[in-house]
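subagent[fold] <- orchestrator: predict structure for attached chain, return tokens only, no commentary.
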Amino acid sequence: MLLAEVERLTRELAGAKAEVQRLSALAEEDPLCAILNRRGFDREFKRSAAHVARYGTAAALLLIDLDDFKDINDASGHAAGDAVLKDVASVLSRGLRESDVVARIGGDEFAVILWHAGLDEALAIGARLTASLPSPASFGAAAFERDACSGILERADLALYAAKRRKGETNGVRR
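subagent[fold] -> orchestrator:
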């Protein structure tokens, strides 16, 4: 009788652990795009920064923002906007190595951590990826630096907004 109770409790514990793992994964996954969300990205970003700081491994960050995404939602509805976001996530995931990290970190903003890539390679990958997206997009890139990982998000964000400004000026629009 005691053995049966121990076996039952062991099964329940295993089931509870599996449920905790499932819920943890859901807490870090974007339900629409089936890639990491901001929480999952933040975890991977911290891990990446710590790895680069400790081992000096090359890595880079891309921030990708869809241009005028609001216009898609306004003109075609939110279902169309959701379809574009799913397509973008799919293109990004397929266009990268399995070891790279892809996340949706905001409404129409995505982040990519590229392992074993410097700034030049990140710029080439960013250009290739944004050219293949189903919606016009801008990107900014920054390299993880062993002694300055803390500023990488800010550097990539500044590069993203500089790209958006250049694109706006090219189109005759000053933003």
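orchestrator: received. Logging for downstream: Residues 2-27 form the longest helix (26 residues). Confidence is low (pLDDT under 50) at residues 171-175.
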